[in-house]
């Protein structure tokens, strides 16, 4: 009989398991995909330190191959001055410009992850144990994490570890593969997952120093399953709760390691002991990893030179006495192209950038649905309920919508059922030939039917509604100068046959479109009592100002105006003029975007790509993103930022207590960093942090995709999202954040929010300050210090006409 484990050991191992689990980034399910920083657990470390960590636990780099940097140096894009500036961020490295350039041409050594027991067992036996372990865990986990796809989902009455333990004692697949007695081995493991963790850790000889990176290594072998479990924990913690699926998954993985070590003990025990000692060594970057960090820093610095020059261009901007239209768009980089096109049509048009959920943390119930969907950044909890409007004349239609949805779900499950699948194909298959032909050629384009206007919870009293409106308008720096029409444009993507369609929607809306948020805010700001209330708070909205919700389709650059939500009798001519401007701006934007998209035949081809179910690149989404700028629009208007910049409207002179600045730096900037670093990770480490080949994707559990017919879920971006088939479409650069605000105010925010400060101090983001003339004047150098940037010579700056 096994001796009971010490309580102190159990607690210590569980604590290490939880800490290692926080090194794993979460992955949101397919119905609400949002970009996630794959280095989320490493933001307290530098790029070089992270390189040392991930080399040990994944065998993947965190920078591009040296040849990529070498090409930039040879082309003159990265200069000696850029390398010298990069070296200043690594004091006492012993490197100089010459040695860094010499290293570019030296032979590279690919990082090698420390082996798992499964790796060593495979070497000893010739049996691919890593693949078998992945297959058996994945086979069970797909059912346990299932969100409606599986016909026979795993029972959910108890924790993941115990559910798997019950399953594994009856699954003979592992024994058939060569691990005899595995079912009995599992049956003998403790029933409590924390005790199972401690028992396996003890059997594997894991010391306190070794456990952190051994556990991290095993989490990474679980791929997307670990990240989905991390998402469950994230969701639970938003509600001040917890979830044990992540540590349960580690317990399952450790049981396999424990069993394999016992089975192949004589062949691998000595090598495994050496591996444990290697895990005990403190993490420290190698000379090569430091050089790689310098090269990446130099590439960032070179790109910043061009960005600083563009932002610092002198612009003769003439503010209209009163704009005919103010158009508020999401800060998403795709909006930059359309905003620039729209503003170029008339000096009477002003555009505004703000987070796409428009400050409304909504939990929304769609028309004909009983489900609540969150339309807000994943960093927040919903605080306001809304539902699509209903009325006696809509009740019958709502019932029809609900019945149709249930019928479609039942029909879909019938088509997939084992008892009907073959007969269904034979009997009903020919019926689908026409549809398949039309879809394959993209001959049909369904007009999207939008829900009735969203209505905020009636229980939301007037004082609360006024406060919401006041807060949102001040956060948008909209306190005066309102136009006759204020268009609030959320965004989404109308694509077909795309498992990651929600990833093309609005990240600020939790992977939903921005339609609900835009329409809800427009409705709120059109309420007469709300306007009277905000007027008392110093925001006087003219009686003839109409707020109008809209939806920007980023795939086709068409904008839908929700005129049905308002009575626009006095604004018919204004709306007609706006529609004309939007049509023209869409043509200009599509023409610019077509230059980047592979095989695009001009702007008229863009709409076809959106409905082509064989198109792997209907749009580039946020590929190429490199900057976040928070400043008055006149600092960037008329300057082409090539659809690569997040643009947030912000006037610090209206921000008396710098509350809006704090909000920008702790929410939109952080979300933008997640997006930027997801693109970065998917580019530099596609094997670990990318989703692989989109052509091979199969949906698993309704929650993620696998590549081919097995393996772990692939998270991040597909290769087609960052590469055009010949070269990279996304240049892996860390985001440059440029804010026009007093430096002291930004320092105050960084002191108050250590997690945000880590992003800048460890150079996952670069921070710049604009002066009162809109010039990029200071660079944040870390440790709450700034360094001045030499201002360009006036004659070298372009004069941009208004």
Number of strands: 21
Q: How far do the termini sit from each other?
A: 84 Å
- Shape by Cα distribution: globular
* Rg, nearest Å: 28 Å
Mean pLDDT, to the nearest integer, reads: 92
Which sheet architecture does the biggest sheet show? 6 strands, mixed
Helix content range: 40-55%
| Strand content range | 5-15%
Summarize the structure.
By secondary structure, this protein is an alpha/beta fold.
Main attributes?
5-stranded mixed beta sheet; 21 strands; alpha/beta; 802 residues; single chain; disordered C terminus
Outline the fold blueprint:
Elements: H1 7-21, H2 47-57, H3 66-74, H4 80-87, H5 97-105, H6 117-125, H7 129-144, H8 160-168, H9 173-177, H10 182-187, H11 193-203, H12 211-221, H13 224-238, H14 245-263, H15 265-280, H16 287-311, E1 314-315, E2 325-330, H17 333-343, E3 349-354, E4 362-365, E5 372-375, E6 384-388, H18 392-416, H19 421-428, H20 433-440, E7 454-456, H21 462-475, E8 485-492, H22 515-525, H23 528-536, E9 546-553, E10 558-561, H24 572-594, H25 606-611, E11 627-631, E12 645-649, H26 659-666, H27 668-684, H28 686-689, E13 690-692, E14 697-700, E15 704-707, E16 717-718, E17 736-740, H29 743-752, H30 754-761, E18 766-770, E19 776-782, E20 785-788, E21 799-800
Parallel strand pairs: 1-21, 2-3, 2-8, 4-6, 8-9, 11-12, 11-17, 13-16, 17-18
Antiparallel strand pairs: 4-5, 6-7, 9-10, 14-15, 18-19, 19-20
């Amino acid at each position: 009989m096994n001796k009971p484990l010490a309580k102190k050991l159990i607690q210590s191992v569980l604590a290490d398991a939880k800490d290692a689990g926080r090194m794993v980034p979460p992955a949101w399910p397919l119905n609400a995909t949002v970009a996630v920083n794959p280095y989320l657990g490493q933001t307290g470390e530098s790029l070089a330190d992270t390189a040392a960590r991930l080399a040990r636990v994944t065998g993947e780099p965190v920078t591009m191959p040296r040849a990529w940097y070498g090409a930039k140096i040879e082309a003159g894009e990265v200069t000696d001055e850029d390398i010298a500036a990069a070296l200043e961020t690594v004091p006492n490295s012993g490197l100089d410009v010459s040695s860094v350039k010499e290293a570019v041409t030296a032979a590279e050594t690919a990082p090698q992850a420390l082996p798992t027991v499964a790796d060593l067992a495979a070497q000893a036996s010739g049996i691919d144990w890593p693949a078998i372990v992945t297959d058996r865990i994945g086979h069970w986990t797909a059912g346990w994490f299932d969100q409606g796809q599986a016909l026979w989902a795993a029972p959910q009455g108890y924790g993941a570890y115990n559910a798997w333990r019950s399953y594994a004692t009856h699954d003979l697949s592992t024994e058939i593969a060569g691990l005899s007695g595995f079912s009995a081995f599992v049956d003998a493991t403790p029933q409590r997952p924390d005790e199972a963790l401690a028992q396996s850790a003890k059997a594997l000889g894991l010391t306190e120093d070794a456990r952190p990176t051994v556990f991290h290594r095993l989490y990474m072998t679980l791929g997307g399953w670990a990240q989905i479990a991390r998402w469950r924990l994230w969701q639970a913690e938003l509600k001040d709760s917890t979830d044990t699926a992540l540590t349960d998954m580690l317990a399952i993985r450790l049981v396999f390691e424990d069993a394999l070590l016992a089975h192949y003990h004589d062949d691998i025990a000595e090598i495994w002991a050496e591996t444990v000692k290697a895990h005990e060594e403190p993490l420290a970057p190698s000379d090569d990893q430091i050089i790689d960090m310098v090269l990446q820093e130099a590439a960032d610095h070179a790109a910043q030179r061009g960005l600083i020059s563009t932002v610092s261009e002198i612009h003769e901007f003439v503010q209209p006495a009163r704009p005919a239209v103010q158009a508020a768009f999401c800060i998403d980089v795709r909006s930059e192209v359309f905003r620039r096109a729209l503003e170029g049509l008339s000096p009477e048009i002003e555009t505004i950038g703000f987070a796409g959920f428009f400050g409304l943390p909504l939990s929304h119930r769609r028309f004909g649905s009983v489900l609540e969907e969150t339309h807000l950044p994943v960093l927040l909890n919903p605080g306001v309920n809304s539902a699509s409007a209903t009325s006696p004349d809509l009740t019958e239609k709502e019932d029809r919508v609900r019945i149709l949805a249930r019928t479609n779900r039942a029909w879909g499950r019938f088509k997939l059922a084992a008892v009907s699948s073959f007969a269904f194909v034979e009997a009903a298959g020919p019926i689908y030939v026409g549809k398949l032909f039309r879809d394959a050629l993209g001959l049909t384009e369904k007009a999207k039917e939008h829900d009735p206007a969203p209505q905020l919870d009636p229980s939301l009293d007037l004082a609360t509604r006024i406060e919401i409106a006041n807060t949102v308008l001040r956060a948008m720096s909209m306190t005066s100068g309102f136009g006759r029409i204020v268009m609030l444009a959320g965004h989404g993507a109308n694509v077909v046959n795309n498992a990651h369609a929600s990833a093309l929607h609005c990240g600020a809306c939790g992977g939903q479109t921005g339609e609900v948020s835009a329409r809800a805010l427009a409705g709120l700001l059109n309420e007469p009592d709300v306007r009277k209330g905000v007027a008392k708070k110093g925001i006087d909205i003219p009686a003839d100002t109409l707020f109008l919700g809209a939806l920007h389709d980023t795939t086709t650059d068409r904008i839908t105006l929700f005129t049905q939500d308002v009575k626009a009798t006095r604004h018919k001519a204004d709306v007609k003029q706006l529609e004309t401007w939007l049509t023209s701006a869409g043509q200009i934007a599509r023409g610019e975007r077509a230059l980047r998209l592979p095989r695009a035949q001009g702007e008229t081809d863009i709409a076809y790509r959106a409905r082509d179910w064989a198109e792997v690149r209907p749009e580039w989404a946020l590929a190429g993103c490199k900057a976040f700028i928070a400043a008055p629009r006149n600092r960037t208007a008329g300057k082409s930022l090539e659809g690569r910049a997040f643009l947030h409207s912000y006037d610090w002179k209206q921000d008396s207590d710098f509350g809006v600045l704090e909000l920008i730096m702790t929410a939109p900037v952080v979300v933008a960093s997640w997006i930027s670093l997801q693109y970065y990770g998917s580019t530099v480490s596609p094997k670990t942090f990318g989703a692989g080949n989109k052509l091979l994707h199969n949906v698993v559990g309704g929650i993620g995709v696998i590549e081919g017919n097995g393996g772990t879920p692939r998270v991040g971006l597909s290769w087609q999202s960052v590469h055009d088939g010949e070269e990279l479409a996304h240049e892996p650069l860390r985001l440059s954040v440029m804010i026009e605000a007093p430096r002291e105010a930004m320092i105050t925010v960084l002191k108050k929010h250590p997690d945000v400060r880590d992003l800048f101090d460890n150079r996952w983001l670069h921070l710049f300050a604009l002066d009162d003339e809109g010039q990029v004047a200071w660079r944040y150098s870390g440790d709450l210090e700034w360094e001045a940037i030499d201002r360009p010579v006036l004659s070298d700056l372009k004069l941009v006409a208004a």
